[in-house]
């Protein structure tokens, strides 16, 4: 049949076929298939697969495509990106999908950034960092060497680590370079805290002192405790320094003059931690912006209102066992909203507005695990062998890092967490610098640091 005649015949039969009912169309196809040879059947088999497929992602409105994609896990989405250029374009354009994927990994989300390609790249970076944590490959170690006797006191701030030692000195180190910036002669240090100009030390000689970094001069001496001073905190705005001691008391001092303004009593054990912090929540007893003092001993945490009114009474005493059968760890977390402390029973979190216990977290073998840092997403914990990261949303340990045989201290502050902002969610910028520091039997300082991103 000539091509022209064939095309005319095909048009006529097509018009007739379209006028048939579905049943008649099916019977027609069945008849044509029965008349077909091997070549025609092979042709039909190859083309049916293509004809039956529908690229729903291409056919659907973009909003519906995004809605469907939200139900897929990120790893599947990455695989789907390989299907076609069109699929890759649609999937990569779904900002919410990639933001949610990042959030699920514990990443901080800035909703003001709406560039979907940015969030896809962030996700790829995030999943690599989380894999490193899971595979115990996210950290590295180094040491600071310079003291000649036991290092008991540690304090970290903005990339700088202060160490106080029984060799009657305090040193300030740049963690990134390992260089000692300042070294000054002091008394024996049980606690240290510093800023750009000064260093405040609590000592085993029962006193507190304030030193000037640049000259090493002692600018103030606070005398009055009858036991070792284990913890200090201060606030320049209030001109107040607080100290916790083995004499069971907390003292409030005028920072500029060294005068003792008040002695807070009520503890029946060594006061191993004092924290001076602004309140961020409202209750019947305090308002946002009020300064709050927390003091902790082996069994109790006491809450004191403090500020320009010096003569304060204890607002509340918190404990985990009324019969004192369960002791608290000396490391205490308070961010103005929540109080967190660890014990042999687990990790306790109190709501500061109501003083109610919000939850008790009990990871495996918690009796030996202590708190280092606590955030909105992650917690940093440690025991005699490992440093742990816990996802607080699931209360599961997601990473661990081996620790050396460090110098153990049940009472003191000879270990601490470094940078803390990542505990509220990683962002690709805050996972750098110091993670953990502890003093060693050879008087060095062991550091655990974030590895740089690959």
Automatic annotation (TrEMBL):
Gene3D superfamilies this protein is in?
1.20.1280.50, YVTN repeat-like/Quinoprotein amine dehydrogenase
- Give all residue intervals belonging to the F-box domain: 54-101
Q: Which residues cross the membrane?
A: none
Stored Pfam families: F-box-like, WD40
Family annotation (InterPro entries)? F-box-like_dom_sf, F-box_dom, FBXW2, WD40/YVTN_repeat-like_dom_sf, WD40_PAC1, WD40_repeat_CS, WD40_repeat_dom_sf, WD40_rpt
Does the keyword Repeat belong to this entry?
Answer: yes
Keyword annotations of the record = Acetylation, Repeat, Ubl conjugation pathway, WD repeat
PROSITE patterns documented for this protein: FBOX, WD_REPEATS_1, WD_REPEATS_2, WD_REPEATS_REGION
The record's WD repeats, renumbered to this chain, cover: 144-183, 222-263
Q: What does this protein do?
A: Substrate-recognition component of the SCF (SKP1-CUL1-F-box protein)-type E3 ubiquitin ligase complex.
Quaternary assembly? Directly interacts with SKP1 and CUL1.
Annotated protein name in UniProt: F-box/WD repeat-containing protein 2
Species the sequence originates in: Pampusana beccarii (Western bronze ground-dove)
């Amino acid at each position: 049949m000539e091509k022209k005649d064939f095309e005319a015949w095909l048009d006529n039969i097509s018009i007739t076929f379209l006028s048939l009912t579905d049943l008649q169309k099916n019977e027609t196809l069945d008849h044509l298939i029965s008349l077909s040879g091997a070549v025609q059947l092979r042709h039909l088999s190859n083309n049916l697969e293509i004809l039956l497929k529908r690229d729903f992602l291409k056919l659907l409105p973009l909003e519906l495509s995004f809605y469907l994609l939200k139900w897929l896990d990120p790893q599947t989405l990455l695989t789907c990106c390989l299907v076609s250029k069109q699929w890759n374009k649609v999937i990569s354009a779904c900002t919410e999908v990639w933001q949610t994927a990042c959030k699920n990994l514990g990443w901080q989300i800035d909703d003001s950034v709406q560039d979907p390609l940015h969030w896809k790249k962030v996700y790829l970076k995030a999943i690599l960092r989380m894999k490193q944590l899971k595979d115990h490959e996210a950290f590295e170690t180094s040491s600071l060497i310079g003291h000649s006797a036991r290092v008991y006191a540690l304090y970290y701030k903005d990339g700088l680590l202060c160490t106080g030692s029984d060799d009657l000195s305090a040193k300030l180190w740049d963690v990134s370079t390992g260089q000692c910036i300042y070294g000054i002669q002091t008394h024996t240090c049980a606690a240290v805290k510093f800023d750009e100009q000064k260093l405040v030390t609590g000592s085993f000689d029962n006193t507190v002192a304030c030193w000037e970094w640049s000259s090493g001069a002692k600018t103030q001496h606070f005398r009055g405790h009858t036991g070792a001073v284990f913890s200090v905190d201060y606030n320049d705005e209030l001109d107040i320094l607080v100290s916790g001691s083995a004499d069971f008391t907390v003292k409030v001092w005028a920072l500029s003059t060294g005068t003792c303004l008040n002695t807070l009593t009520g503890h029946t054990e060594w006061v191993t931690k004092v924290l001076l912090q602004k309140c961020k929540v409202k209750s019947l007893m305090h308002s946002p912006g009020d300064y709050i003092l927390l003091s902790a001993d082996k069994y109790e945490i006491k809450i004191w209102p403090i500020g320009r009114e010096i003569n304060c009474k204890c607002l509340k005493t918190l404990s985990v066992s009324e019969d004192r059968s369960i002791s608290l760890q000396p490391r205490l977390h308070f961010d103005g909203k929540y109080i967190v402390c660890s014990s042999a029973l687990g990790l306790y979190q109190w709501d500061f507005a109501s003083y109610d216990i919000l939850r008790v977290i009990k990871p495996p073998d918690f009796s030996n695990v202590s708190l280092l840092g606590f955030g909105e997403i992650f917690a940093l914990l440690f025991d005699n062998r490992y440093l742990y990261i816990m996802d607080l949303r699931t209360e599961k340990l997601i990473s661990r890092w081996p620790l050396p045989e460090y110098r153990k201290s049940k009472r003191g502050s000879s270990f601490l967490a470094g940078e803390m902002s990542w505990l509220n969610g990683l962002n690709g910028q805050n996972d750098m610098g110091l993670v953990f520091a502890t003093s060693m039997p050879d008087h060095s300082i062991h550091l655990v640091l974030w590895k740089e991103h690959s």
